[in-house]
Amino acid sequence: MTRVLVIDDEPQIVRALVINLKARHYEVDAAHDGATALQLAAARHPDVVVLDLGLPDMDGVEVIRGLRGWTRVPILVLSARHSSDEKVEALDAGADDYVTKPFGMDELLARLRAAVRRAEPVPGGEDEVVVDTPEFTVDLAAKKVNRGGRDVRLTPTEWHLLEVLVRNTGRLVSQKQLLQEVWGPSYGTETNYLRVYMAQLRRKLEADPAHPRHFITEPGMGYRFEK
Predict the structure, then answer these.
(1) Which residues carry this modification: 4-aspartylphosphate (predicted)?
(2) Domain coordinates of the chain in residue numbers?
(3) What is the mean pLDDT of each run of 10 residues along the chain (227 residues)?
(4) I need a labelling partner for 151 at 20 to 30 A (CA). Which of 142, 163, 177, 207 fits?
(5) End-to-end alpha-carbon separation of the chain, Å?
């Protein structure tokens, strides 16, 4: 069973999420503050985290950073904060998706399922591919990236984005295609997600992130990976 960690200080939202998730055969743990959430995550190893940013003891972005220090678990932010800057800050810290309150339960559950799918290994022999560049190596079978002899820690979403681009080496991948392949079919206009995640990949993998050699932007169209 998929284990979900719900982190929110609003009892009615926690109760609604727990009821709906358990009805769909998820195992659910709940925390009402950041410190408890980090302890629960370490003890219970959830498969996905649903996180409110407005917690009583710390900002949710701090919780994201705390989790990203040791785990790649998908993180779905659920927050009343609507500004683009706040969404980008959460995504930049390592969140995988962002849903604003008030929210529809069906949409939230669909995004949660998509986040879990992105973290699952892709079956099939075609994954036995290693792509070498002068700066780093991508092992599609092992879902690993090595740079300078050391493994690079990527979140599930960063990995999925990298995987789509690498499998289309040299070809332009449109913004819409990337959004739908990485986040799901209901996505197509959230181009700020792509900007944030491409910046993260460049920071982690490019020798000079400000002048990328491998992750190329085609303005207004999409992105291309070059070896």
Answers:
(1) 52
(2) 3-119, 125-225
(3) 96 96 97 97 96 95 93 91 85 89 91 83 57 93 92 92 92 90 86 94 96 93 92
(4) 177
(5) 39
DSSP codes of every residue in 95-159:
-SEEEESS--HHHHHHHHHHHHHHHSPPPSGGG--EEE-SSEEEETTTTEEEETTEEPP--HHHH
CA 96 to chain centre: 2
The CATH-assigned architecture of domain 125-225 is Orthogonal Bundle (1.10)
> Of how many residues is the chain composed?
227
pLDDT at residue 127 in the model: 45
The CATH number given to 3-119 is 3.40.50.2300
State the virtual CA torsion across 203, 95, 225, 188 in degrees, nearest 10. -140
* CA dist., res. 119 & res. 34, Å (int): 23
User: Which distant-in-sequence residues (6+ apart) come within 8 Å of 197 by Cβ?
Assistant: 91, 157, 158, 161
Rounded distance between C-alpha atoms, residue 61 and residue 85, angstroms: 13
Q: Tell me, what's the pLDDT at 114?
A: 83
**3-119 and 125-225: identical CATH topology:** no
